[in-house]
């Protein structure tokens, strides 16, 4: 194939060589003046039938890539065609032939024959549109549908009568297509070649002289068709002419050319059209039968002709996308052997019977939630095999989504982000892309893409409360749970994993009191709290996520120590160790007060004073008189602690009175203390002194007696222990 191309270029392009040289020189002058830009469309040209792996063009070099960049830029073909005619070289990025390319199968009579594809590179992203022109080579010889053609001629046929012959078909185009017909020399016949408006050549057999059946009943000719390729290819058909008796009126068709338009969706068995011919003869010479004298195999499988009525019916499927045009020749022959021919041109009309096809190539999935608008998510390739409005396709995205379609070329779209994404609101999108053509009725197809949104650390932890309050009873155990703080982070994975710390690495006045567990946020007491020393304190807890960089938030924890009744009331007066009379008498072991015997009811004897280190109800004190020689003589204020006379003092009352009062708080359980007050009934301090002296002597004697009793008890105990030891010793010795 390469040699044939070289021959064709050498033989047919010498005249264009000079123009090419001039064009190259002109480009060499103009190109340095232009700024370089990436081409919108790359164009290559190759002959058909190249072997697999043949070079089409240096694609990587033409898009500005060197071999070292290929792994990073990820050069690849994203064409949506069903057949992959091309591939990329893995080491150099050259565009290579991947499958056999037959121009006649792909394009038929269409010229030029161009295959289009899209090529994608990444980092940065770009799309290149590549067009490959397929040049024809002379790989097909002309071919007749019938190798043997039988023609019946009446001997009375006048000279100059023409008989259409089977046309020859050559799938090649241009110079390689059918060029001419040749006929073996004959004195009775010659060949006339006509060219139709569409450029096709048709051969007709011209009768030069009168026929004489009695001299020669049969004539044999060879018709040769040659093309214009180099080397020349040809095809032949044998023509047998039978001379029959005269029938002077040939059939006559109502039309010389039947032009028919058929919708491609007509069902099989439908009547396509009818041909009609008339004959001026009578009898069997007027009976006309119809047949296809020249028809392609594809048309013969699609249409059938009724030989009696001339009805042409559809016997196979019509598909505009496969065959757009049929041509045939109908022969009408009467019973006498005369015939007439009419051309039939059948145009297939496209209907919207093909839905668009979508090919979706994901580029970025999952997509980070901090992606900027216009980030490319995927490439969509759209194809519709119909033509005209039926092949015009519009794509759109269903629903209200933060994405849009950007048209890259006629059949290619880019799916890009339109606005910012937030994974915490929507973590995945179900994107449905609809392609709808402009036919009537319109057909559509859909492609779905599940797009995941990946997380970035864009959310700081948030505490459930800005400030926490905890109430802990004093005297708690060290390590007791105070409360739990909790912060939520809307991010996922390590970005949403929250750890807790004391603000400032636990430094500060409140640090010795509490600690926080990093994972759970539990705040524990480091020591036992004492309400009387510290009633409340505050500590700052920081919640930090595991992102990079990390984000954090702070909450304040207020700890209030709740008082317990752990302190008994303490009596300040009367004191147990010392006291002084109201009249300023000398020191005494027990406090005393002198009350005149003339005192009336309500006389203030003394005021007991007590305090409680606790707070609240635990510090509310009440006083009660629990011991008195004369129960009805004195009373004590419940809350004031004032000791007053309940009645007037009488002569019968004992001179020395010993009063014992108890002081209680209101805690649960209640704690108490006692206070002892000695009262002497006397009119003056001098009268009370003898009583106080006797009391002192009595106190001293009592104290000495107590000491003697304690010493005697100790001696008796020692003697008892010693006796027991002696008894045990002698028993053990006797046992030995």
From TrEMBL:
Gene3D superfamilies: Cadherins. It is a single-pass type I membrane protein. SMART domains: CA. The chain crosses the membrane at residues 707-730. Keywords: Calcium, Cell adhesion, Cell membrane, Glycoprotein, Membrane, Repeat, Signal, Transmembrane, Transmembrane helix. Pfam families: Cadherin, Cadherin_2. Residues 38-144, 145-253, 254-358, 367-463, 464-571, 595-692 form the Cadherin domain. GO terms for cellular component: plasma membrane. The keyword Coiled coil does not apply. One of its GO terms (biological process) is homophilic cell adhesion via plasma membrane adhesion molecules. Residues 1-37 form the signal peptide. InterPro entries: Cadherin-like_dom (IPR002126), Cadherin-like_sf (IPR015919), Cadherin_CS (IPR020894), Cadherin_N (IPR013164), Protocadherin/Cadherin-CA (IPR050174). The keyword Cell membrane applies. It comes from the Eukaryota. It is found in: Cell membrane. One of its GO terms (molecular function) is calcium ion binding. PANTHER family: CADHERIN-87A, PROTOCADHERIN GAMMA-B3-RELATED. Potential calcium-dependent cell-adhesion protein. May be involved in the establishment and maintenance of specific neuronal connections in the brain. This is PCDGH protein. It comes from Asarcornis scutulata.
